[in-house]
Write a structure and sequence with these properties.
Length: 153
């Protein structure tokens, strides 16, 4: 197995362009290169309310984070670009610095050749992100009714 070229442990080659590691929040926040990570132009603004809601959920049910702890980082000319996970990173920073909580991210490192490939990666990750927005924004009663309705089709 090749030496782990990125921060974290449990390195694993996914394919010729992608590598996976696990990085503790504390290690992530102490790593200068990760702290100074670039944000692609296509990445939207941070939403404080979303981060607050994520923190509240984590404090009540931290086990849920284990199914959404993956972040995607593009690697271009030795620089890191956070393509997916900016709210999770901000949440982890607040939970670690303000409350001393430490968990980990599953980091997917994707080698890219130019900014167009960063945009392509971002679009690929996010092109289906809105299709569940209506469902996710509903209360549990409506979600249950939607689930029951779709069972018939």
């Amino acid at each position: 197995m090749p030496k782990n070229p990125y921060p974290g442990s449990k390195g694993h080659v996914i394919n010729d362009k992608a590598y996976k590691t696990e990085v503790l929040w504390s290690d992530f926040l102490r790593n200068d290169k990760l702290c100074d990570m670039n944000k692609p132009v296509s990445q939207g603004a941070l939403h404080t309310e979303k981060i607050d809601n994520m923190i509240e959920e984590y404090e009540k049910k931290p086990y849920l984070f284990s199914v959404k702890n993956t972040i995607v980082i593009a690697v271009l000319n030795g620089k890191y670009y956070l393509v997916d996970g900016q709210h999770r990173v901000s949440m982890s920073e607040r939970l670690y610095t303000m409350r001393g909580l430490d968990d980990y991210f599953v980091c997917i490192w994707v080698k890219v050749n130019n900014e167009s490939e960063i945009r392509e990666l971002f679009n690929s990750i996010n092109k289906t992100a809105h299709h569940n927005r209506m469902y996710v924004s509903q209360d549990v009663f409506i979600q249950t009714r939607i689930d029951e309705f779709t069972q018939y089709f």
